[in-house]
Amino acid sequence: MMPKLIDGRAIAERVYAELRDEIVSLKSRGATPGLAVVLVGDDPPSRAYVRAKDKTCRELGLHSVKLELSATTTQAELLARVDELNRDEKIHGILVQSPPPPQIDEAAIIRALDPRKDVDGFHPLNVAKLALEDDTGFVPCTPLGCLRLLRETGIALSGANVVVLGRSMIVGKPMALLLMRKGIDATVTVIHSRTRNISESCRRADVIIAAIGRPHFVRTEFVREGATVIDVGINRVEDAGSERGYKLVGDVDFESVSKLAGAITPVPGGVGPMTIAMLMSNTIKACRQITSFQATKSG
Ligand code: NAP
Hints:
- By secondary structure, this protein is of the alpha/beta class.
- Helices cover 39% and strands 16% of the residues.
- It contains 10 helices and 11 strands.
- The strands form 3 sheets. Strands 1-11-8-7-5-6 form a 6-stranded parallel beta sheet. The protein has a 3-stranded parallel beta sheet with strand order 3-2-4, with helices on both faces. Strands 9-10 form a two-stranded antiparallel ribbon.
- The chain is globular and about 50 Å long.
- The two termini are 35 Å apart.
- Residues 142, 165-168, 170-172, 191-195, 198, 211-214, 232-235, 271-272, 275 line the site of NADP nicotinamide-adenine-dinucleotide phosphate.
- The site of NADP nicotinamide-adenine-dinucleotide phosphate has 25 residues, from helix 10.
């Protein structure tokens, strides 16, 4: 059986096409959506993510601010920068790239964000809005991107058994909350490091969403024939054949599982591009909400 490859790059382009219309409409009314991305320190993957976000903002014609702060930045200094961005009228979305250096209390930084500008959806108010099914809140970008991938692929979610591997606040937990919402109506099982008989639970799933950060953890014995598999994992594994000395692989053993799955995302090129697309979508939503303009399309 040939699985359907879920092309995250192509679906992200469709999202951008929709967003461009909305950006034009907002600009015509004098509002340019603005995103500030704050990076503390010089962690190479974080630097690459921040560059990619800044580049996408510019390509879409958004106002983009990239704040690169030294690894020795104190909590007080970072809070002061967040406060400036909270008050900056040109900025509608603020993201502090994770993970920050150890002297930074990340939870306190998130609480200091203006929740109306919390486009990552990590502020307690936005977490509550997700649980309350209040659409004015912001949903974290990666689970939002996974949902869009499933919808674009035409996978029926109502009543489907979905297994989410991982319960982090960034991916697993918001993913489960989104999928069980009224109107989406999946039946969700969440798996974590204390779960017993993981492969057995996974084999009952119509959809598996893997977000545990363990290379190639999901193998054929986890997957029922025809199931949909969304691989959120991004893991660096040694690769002597590559110039960089490593390659990126997902939490799913793509080579074997793709022979069995009905549809599957690749890594890279699956969930990753959707995360950035949803960040742009959330920034435009923040601009629309802050400026009280109506959307031209749902976003
Ligand atoms: P995380 O915070 O480390 O959480 C991992 C989760 O997986 C935890 O809930 C943990 O359980 C569970 N887990 C770990 N090992 C397990 C095992 N052997 N069996 C069952 N459960 C296990 O990770 P994260 O931030 O959610 O990220 C997960 C992966 O997604 C990483 O590879 C990350 O790089 C990737 N990611 C990708 C994107 C993207 O845009 N594509 C975005 C975010 C993250 P406990 O709670 O019990 O510890």
